Amino acid sequence: MADAVRSGARAPATDRLTLARLLRAREAGVFIALLVLCLFLSFATDGFLTSLNLLNVGRQISLLGIMAVGMTFVLIAGEVDLSVGSTYAFSGLATGMLIIAGWALLPAIGVGLATGVAIGLINGVLSTYGRLPSLIATLGMLSIVRGAALILTNGQPVTVNARNGALPGVLQSFGFMGQGYLFSIIPMQLVFFVIIAALAWMVVAFSNFGFRVYAVGGSAKAARVSGISVNSVKICAFVLIGVLAAFAGILSMAFLPSGQAGRTGVGLELDVIAATIVGGASLSGGEGTILGTILGVLIIGVMRNGLVLMGVSPFVQELMIGLVIIIAVGIDKWSTRRTN
Amino acid sequence: MTEQQTPAPIVEISGLTKRFPGVLALDRISVDFRPGEVHAVIGENGAGKSTLMNILAGDLQPNSGEIRIDGRQATIASPLASRAAGITVVYQELALCPTLTIADNIMMSDMAARSAVSLVPRDKMRREARAALARLGMGKLDPDTRVGRLSVAEMQLVEIAGAIRQRARVLVLDEPNSALSKRESGRLFDIVRQLRGEGVTVIYVSHHLKEVLDLADRITVMRDGRTIETLDNDGLSEDRLIRAMVGRDLDTAAQWSLQPEARSDAAPIVLSVEELTADGLDGLSFHARAGEILGIGGLPDSGKDTLGEALFGLCSRDGRISIDGKELRAADPHASIRNGMTLVPADRRGAGALLAMSVADNVVSASLPRFSLAGFMRRGAVRREARAQVARLDARISHLGQRLATLSGGNQQKIILGRSLVTNPRVLILHEPTRGVDVGAKAEIYAILRGIAGEGVAVVMISSEIPELIMNAERVLVLRNGRISGELTGAGINEEAILARAMAS
């Protein structure tokens, strides 16, 4: 499976599917690690291998996954976005406040997504025409957007419910987006993640835009000389992750359904980058696939879930996640150096 | 050959001038390139060839002068505009995406021309890339291979394949064969001839005179930022080309080498090198005596650029290197310094200087143990030594705490020289000692080097600037293909002799 997808996403493609080739695909390592982890957990715990738990894992990883898909574009393009946690908070809170103010669902969500677009545009313009390293530009935006969210909410928690003024019909649909189940079993958050990941996979692996993102991240000079507008490709990638972070924030607001500017999504950008990196994207650009990112998100999600099921303390969980990041990227670097 | 009629030029350059701060890189040059010709551009290092190519590529803008394309006045404002005008420049530094496949790279311009919201036609790309490779006789390369895995030569051919596919009307090959094997360059020449037959103009920048004579229809010789002459390749010889390339007026330069006393012939040998082999070097043996300035010259791919690092131990090497009879076994810069060897590298910004640190810190940075006590810097001693070096080298600084980055190139170079001198060297190796240094400071640095040699240090000066070798060295070794192709002494050191040994076959 890994290879079939890979070949779309510029792998040494062959028409024949051999085991050796499967193992050589870049996602193979992550996939095997995930498989081993799942096998171990299904023996070590009672609750892991139940459809209820697996769907639960699916819901838990969805918001992280939606943002990691966006981050994959940015990392392939050779940039990074540290402001996603703040965007997540700001856009979710903005949509929540509009719903409380009696807005209809779609306009409220539309404005929330528009804030994501705006933040992405600012990030993109600063990192291209503004000539700032994206690490710096988005670090600044991390603070600015967080500050804006605090000002917007006056630091108070925002809770979406009928008592605060939300219209009942709107409240119901909004709640369904975050808490509902498709066919009464599949969490809506997971549905959104799957749709977004599938679309993104097609864009990255098969579209001309996806090709441009790889070209820009692989060598900006080569891309420029070929006539690709490096700046607009990068700005598009930033807008994309801005929108996806905003959407994840809105879903989170719909799920909980509350948020607080000082707490929501703090530090989330690091989880998102970690999952993307574990999935094989590289901070130096030109590398990464949506499939890899999904696997990276799954590894972190399954790991968290498994540790909870095994009753491991949350403190140790943090430590284990850190180890996974270092080991996963370490193995990857080690194995690519060996094959080169 | 083509006496009957001369076709209208496709690119015509007249009165083109490009000025960099302190340097006139192109001085009112004029040259025209005709359709269906192979037009070689030759000249020494610094003659202005690269600047001209960069202007054609749209990377640099001229200060004045005119470029006409197809008879119409044109500005080549960007690399993209250059490509749009049908000009493709294949650089020595390649413009390829190492993370993408060969097919992706060859087809990148096609992808850029299509809508961003279209599908990537992988099969078509693979097919067309394979065809483009086959035209270069590279049909056995798998178009799905990542470019990062290829050899430099293969990458170069991939870039040429991409250029050919785009139906370039003017193909500029900048030193294309420095990385190619004999077989690969043979194939490249076939391609060049084939393209000429199809009406493509090939501008061929090269140091290899034999190839130029084999391949070119016309040859333009550049020197000191001027186009000296454009010759029809009809009955020309390597000698004729070399004579056109030299002719610099050196009478005003005090020629150290022509001074009567051959002072160091009897001096003891300080540096002795036997069978030195490293990347680009193939079994060099030579020596340098106390008080001697030994010049090393050669083309960029002659191995001269790795010699300094190999001697100093910055890269792995084989062979025997000894200083005053004591062999330096491992390739270890620390051991080299301890045993009296020191290097002033060519890349001042990258490898040479601690630009963000002060003058004083730079002066002592190669001799820290002498200036520290129990892990603390002996600030007083540092300042004394720095002050002494600054005075000796006549470096113009405002104070010892000044950051090196704020100094001019010449003064930076003096401070780096000072750092080398603080180590009390027996052998001082300089790589491009006056690169990026203005004329006045150059003369001062030369005087300093003579003074250092006069104190009994063996000075090895590796330089691409032939006048610099002629003015300073008592003996010049010329490298070619990693070997010593000639040794010149005294009055035998002249531009023609050096160029002939560096270039001619």
UniProtKB/TrEMBL annotation, chain A:
GO molecular function, one term: transmembrane transporter activity
Keywords from the UniProt entry: Cell membrane, Membrane, Transmembrane, Transmembrane helix
Name of the protein in its database record: D-ribose transporter subunit membrane component of ABC superfamily
Source organism of the structure: Mesorhizobium metallidurans STM 2683
Predominant location: membrane
Gene designation: rbsC
Superkingdom of source: Bacteria
Membrane-protein topology: Multi-pass membrane protein
Compartments, as annotated in UniProt: Cell membrane
Entry GO terms, CC: plasma membrane
Transmembrane annotation, as ranges: 28-49, 61-78, 98-122, 134-153, 165-183, 190-211, 231-256, 268-301, 307-331
UniProt xrefs under InterPro entries: ABC_transp_permease
From TrEMBL, chain B:
GO cellular component: plasma membrane
EC class name: hydrolase
Domain ABC transporter: 11-249, 264-505
EC number in record: 3.6.3.17
Membrane spanning residue stretches: none
Keywords associated with the record: ATP-binding, Cell membrane, Hydrolase, Membrane, Nucleotide-binding, Repeat, Sugar transport, Translocase, Transport
Pfam families assigned: ABC_tran (PF00005)
Compartments in which it is found: Cell membrane
Signal peptide: none
Protein name: Ribose import ATP-binding protein rbsA 2
Name of the gene: rbsA
